[in-house]
Amino acid sequence: VQLVQSGAEVKHPGTSVKVSCKTSGYTFISDFIDWVRQDPAQGLEWVGRIDPEDGETTLAQNFQGRLTFTADTSTSTVYLDLENLRSEDSAVYYCTTLEFTYWGQGTQVTVAS
After folding, report:
1. 55-76 per-position pLDDT tens digit
2. Across the beta sheet with 2-5, what order do the strands follow?
């Protein structure tokens, strides 16, 4: 099982970022894909999850209205789209699946003026 994420991003406050997570080695629609983020100040924070089979999402409360997950079953890829970025969104974002057993390598998102 492999999860390969897109590269680091540097963004200005108020803009948006899109992070991809391409999966392989298992049945894409068989399990949720969760996203978590980590920064030195806040530690590990669960961001939300998507069910690739039907696209249903669950978002952490503090991201609602700014965050969208999508899944492309043709490429076994999920996407995280975070809008209206703030400096406190700076973190390493990880995708993970099969009950947090397998993880992507992480994507550093830096939000700075």
Report:
1. 999 999 988 899 999 999 999 9
2. 2-5, 17-24, 77-82, 67-72
